[in-house]
Amino acid sequence: MDTAIFGAGRIGKIHAGNLVRQNGVRLKYVVDPDAAAASALAAQHGAGVSSIEAVFADRAIRAVVIASSTDTHADLIERAAASGKAIFCEKPVDLSLARARECAAAVKRAGVPCLIGFQRRYDPTFAAARARIDAGEIGDPEMLIVTSRDPGTPPLEYLKRSGGIFKDMLIHDFDIFRWILGDEAATLHATGSCLTDPNVASVGDVDATAVTIRTRSGRLAQINTIRRAAYGYDQRFEVIGAKGMLQAGNHRPTEVAAWTGQSVSFDKPEYFFLERYRVAYALEMAHFFEALASGKPVKTSIEDGVKALELAEAATVSWRERRIVEF
Amino acid sequence: MDTAIFGAGRIGKIHAGNLVRQNGVRLKYVVDPDAAAASALAAQHGAGVSSIEAVFADRAIRAVVIASSTDTHADLIERAAASGKAIFCEKPVDLSLARARECAAAVKRAGVPCLIGFQRRYDPTFAAARARIDAGEIGDPEMLIVTSRDPGTPPLEYLKRSGGIFKDMLIHDFDIFRWILGDEAATLHATGSCLTDPNVASVGDVDATAVTIRTRSGRLAQINTIRRAAYGYDQRFEVIGAKGMLQAGNHRPTEVAAWTGQSVSFDKPEYFFLERYRVAYALEMAHFFEALASGKPVKTSIEDGVKALELAEAATVSWRERRIVEF
Amino acid sequence: MDTAIFGAGRIGKIHAGNLVRQNGVRLKYVVDPDAAAASALAAQHGAGVSSIEAVFADRAIRAVVIASSTDTHADLIERAAASGKAIFCEKPVDLSLARARECAAAVKRAGVPCLIGFQRRYDPTFAAARARIDAGEIGDPEMLIVTSRDPGTPPLEYLKRSGGIFKDMLIHDFDIFRWILGDEAATLHATGSCLTDPNVASVGDVDATAVTIRTRSGRLAQINTIRRAAYGYDQRFEVIGAKGMLQAGNHRPTEVAAWTGQSVSFDKPEYFFLERYRVAYALEMAHFFEALASGKPVKTSIEDGVKALELAEAATVSWRERRIVEF
Amino acid sequence: MDTAIFGAGRIGKIHAGNLVRQNGVRLKYVVDPDAAAASALAAQHGAGVSSIEAVFADRAIRAVVIASSTDTHADLIERAAASGKAIFCEKPVDLSLARARECAAAVKRAGVPCLIGFQRRYDPTFAAARARIDAGEIGDPEMLIVTSRDPGTPPLEYLKRSGGIFKDMLIHDFDIFRWILGDEAATLHATGSCLTDPNVASVGDVDATAVTIRTRSGRLAQINTIRRAAYGYDQRFEVIGAKGMLQAGNHRPTEVAAWTGQSVSFDKPEYFFLERYRVAYALEMAHFFEALASGKPVKTSIEDGVKALELAEAATVSWRERRIVEF
């Protein structure tokens, strides 16, 4: 199957590397406004450099991977849908909820498969937790606590264009919430602070948040995030049911323990998302092509993308207007 | 030093056992409306059975331990203050905030030492976490996540008289919040659900809560509680600062690990508060008498009791009225 | 029941403190060549200072605790046996195997209860491991690995009188071996080195050992010891059966974890035997008086003391003569 | 660089998969007596099926990977050395120490690079432990405890041709011993038993061993092995120095923890060597080609292969003749 990738940056490279390992899949084109980046990635995988127009004009291209900047996602999704190509798109669909909904409608009309890159659902630890919930190990899930911390606050330039912490960072956590509890929000409360860098406030954002969601059936979820954890990337959740609790924990680079006169110490967690979700990205791509081959729906649909964005928008409102949002 | 104890029930026995181990301290009287319980406890420690009046009339009694039912605390505190006796009182001061404030005023006027039984502050793990924060190990504390789960939902009869989950169960967590962050609440949001037993709703209470507090200086705290954790008593917190995170974890009865064809498993946590805080209760009592001897203030004052109650009352309002409470 | 204790040193204080907490037990006499130590301990527990002769002459004394120096154990055991008093004796029975056997014979003739202080069997973690083996959790135990490390090499003066590392330090590990595998040695190989302090060789001893025992039924055990572990007292074992493995691990003072830019760290183990086995010593003393009350045999008999000494002597021979010892 | 692989079985597939991911490396030939296996593996990687003769006759082949049955290793090493090709050979060099020494001599004469597949040295956890020892974290290493357990006893047919447990299974542990302590054996004691399957004795082997090595400088090492651990593959070591201890632990498939009414449980270790050392095999192959490119020596040389075999042979003698072997 011939494919093309939009975006030859950090995440584009990851996806391209995983894509070419799929049986029967060929990376035909790489598209990126940065010609040097496009060439380098294309050369690495025996692909050609191309343009958006050429990709959509090529009927042999059956699937596209959208790993370009966020503001290009919606257009590319719509064009791919219009030309009947299967879509693998990095999150978020768009920073505008209205625009994301248009994309979802376009995908639905076109009937093309469309996977949104909520890669955490493919992580072996997170997926095992979900599978064990499904198997009834803790009974019906009742409460969820999500911990989501980044190793460092990004530059202000990045933050200005990010859509705010709720859309940029918590979008994943909102997806985890929906996926693990299997329920939708009834009310949401969000608050936040600038704790790691006072300049964050100057761009109208916060760098730490505390979110509480109550679902339609009364389940409770809390999400805590911060942009800077000194010990790196902290990605955990725990879910409680009548029969017990499941915790999904961090991964460590090695299993060395040091016993000294000071303490017993272990590795801190894997540094950031490229390390922590390396396997998840590979499994996500494999799932995409398996879904194409089998005709089964993808696990992380564009509807999931829209729903997570709805929560992110509600959280932004709750934080800005200091009120509880009801759905 | 001669002392008396009010209450010969479960917690009274714990306190009496710790009291008689203090050097130079004698348990002279046990008072309890249940004569058999009073006699048994008195006999165990070589004390006499007495009455409220007789205790306060005995000038030799220098300190009293109030471990009787919650509705008696306020009166006993005021009488002890009026008669110049040092006070060790189980939490809460009272279910009424106004009444608790009267007690605090009475204690202040009398100038007697008054320790309120927030025993968690004396727990070796919790106290070590606080000491390491004070030593600057993680920098200034910025965010706090408190997990507080009980092994089982109590009988409805208990719940009816409990003052509600926020005053009965989270009172401790509100104290932990103030103690660890060293800050006061600016806004508070609380929600809750009946997740473990639908009958809890019939007495106007919930059995699971999610609370978020933003402090005056912008620090964030989240508290999650549930009345029934299948694995027992779950008492953890984690606190983040610019230099790292400290976690205070559960204690296990033994350090046996079993590696089998199914899993690698460890003991679940110690069962409930009598087990988990056994050492904390002993250290709390020792601290009380050390404070009396040295004349230094007690670590958990009646003002702390009032402050925690203020938060519990605000949380009750936030939950009932579905609104954010501002202080 | 009236009792006396011989020895008012470090371990004597521990035993005295535990003894006086037993219901119906009174510490009547403290005996120690150091008059000041004897007086202080006696005063603390309302006992009197006495002499060996006076203790054995007092018919009211029903049990004695022998916590004096090792070279006095055998004589005191024999005198106690001769006068029909129950015996609680610190390990070892004696440094001479022949002398220890005489003591065992004397105890047997007299028919008095005699508990030897292998306190590790009473430790909650170790005892739970054994109970779970007995319950069949891992099937028949096949292999045992014992790790036994002290926080620091003792002074040479101590080592000179210690009987050597195998009798002084590994005596406990040999008892664990017999207790956990429920089997006796067929062959034993021991080797050792001076790794922590070259002066240890000058007193004809080693400070690190590696012992392998093959039992009559073919089970295998390995013991590794060292006198100085930088991180403190390391007391672990693991035992394998057809159905899995049980590990008995170290205890930590607190359950605080610190996540920093360097590592995730926990407390190092409790410092030394007084901390690690505090609960074990209390349970050991309680067991002694329960056994006296019930007439049931003690769990750690003088025969166990003799058997452990046989292994220690064999290990000494194996190390010195560089040969495998067959039993 | 053109390469060939001998052996298209389980381990051959692993090595072929890693080989083709090296930059500038082409798998030209696959050789295996099982034609179907050879064809399948060749087809997967775009290689051709060939013969031993053809491989050595092809001057374009610069490196060979020997992943065929043990009894073919020595001949293939000698032929590769004679034809000047770089060698990557699975352990062991040969079951005969004399034959292995001949191979080492042939490699030395030819001056070709020769990596022996002690893949554990490339494992991230094991390699990190070694690097931290080299960095002085625990001071000079003094004692080493190696735990090495397989998930199941292999069929008797396998055992008959295996060379015995010391050459088949402990060969890796002997290499770890030399690598971690950086020292050579002075004396060795080995014993063993049939604990998992009495039929193992019928082929003159044991399925559980306990080995002790004392090095020239007095360091101590203990190795414990068993062919069947109910919980899977157990690969740990711990090494002690004056400043502390480093432990290299098992890896888990996921980081899910389950807290239930029974216990707190984690995944058991990754199942067997293909899972546990998946990354190690990849890094080993990368190291081989980096060494070829840089001209630097390989980390696991044929001399290391001979040395480990010497220890395995000594252990076999010690066990069979029930005596301590001196080097």
The end-to-end span of chain A amounts to 42 Å
The global form of chain A is globular
Oligomer: homotetramer
- What is the CATH topology descriptor of the largest domain in chain A? Dihydrodipicolinate Reductase, domain 2
Mean pLDDT reading of chain A: 97
What's the helix-strand series of chain A? Answer: EHEHEHEHEHEHEHHHEHEEEEEEHHHE
Q: Profile the largest sheet of chain A.
A: 7 strands, mixed
Name the CATH class of the largest domain in chain A.
Alpha Beta
Going across the major beta sheet of chain A, what is the strand order? 12-11-7-10-9-8-15
Name the helicity range of chain A: 40-55%
In total, the number of domains of chain A comes to 2
Uncertain regions of chain A: pLDDT < 50 for 5+ in a row?
A: none
Structural class of chain A: alpha/beta
Just name the CATH architecture of the largest domain in chain A.
2-Layer Sandwich
Cα-atom Rg of chain A, whole angstroms? 20 Å
